Amino acid sequence: MHILTISGSLRASSTNTTLVRAIMRLAPSHMTFTLYEGLADLPHFSPDLDGDEPPATVRTLRQQLQNAAGVLICTPEYAFGVPGVLKNALDWTVSSGEFSDKPVAAISASPLWGGGENAHASLLLTLKALGTKVPEQGKLMIPHINKKLDANGDISDTETRQALTGLLETLAQTITAASDK
Ligand code: FNR
């Protein structure tokens, strides 16, 4: 089963992107992944651009979402919300509907104690608006992320690794249940 992963951070040494890469290595072999790398290239969403011929970068995002049975999003928190680039990408799918009924895992990670709880809540609201399926165990907030990744970018914290293993299992089960219908 194929999963599209999205990191909400554009930063070269992003902990969220490092975490996404670690999650892809942690996953069982029946789960395959593409890391979406087009966030910075999407134009600012405007309904005026969202006509019969949307920009090529938008078509690529939509195609990658269509090709994926599920999506895993990992985001930092900026000023109590999700980074604008992530919200922008999600807004580009409102009219085209790729997220409708799509199983999604939603992770926020922060160096602070809260784990990006405001961004997490905001992301869940947007995912609800898009009609995604986010299972209860597909939601995870990771505080102190900088202390939970080792120098190789692997997850050094046992509890976090276990939580992520459970999250991946739940995402896979949600995808299987959705495809059985
Ligand atoms: C932050 N950061 C942050 N953290 C948080 O928990 N709540 C917040 O509201 C904010 N706000 C915020 C605004 C701006 C402009 C920056 C640059 C940073 C800290 C943020 O969580 C931290 O820089 C993370 O390391 C960013 O994630 P990546 O880039 O490491 O994935």
UniProtKB/TrEMBL annotation:
InterPro entries: Flavoprotein-like_sf (IPR029039), FMN_Rdtase-like_dom (IPR005025), NAD(P)H-dep_reductase (IPR050712)
GO CC term, one of those recorded: cytosol
Pfam family, one: FMN_red
Domain NADPH-dependent FMN reductase-like residues, every copy: 1-145
Gene Ontology MF term list: FMN binding; oxidoreductase activity
Position of the signal peptide: none
Name of the molecule in the record: NADPH-dependent FMN reductase
Species of provenance: Ktedonobacter racemifer DSM 44963
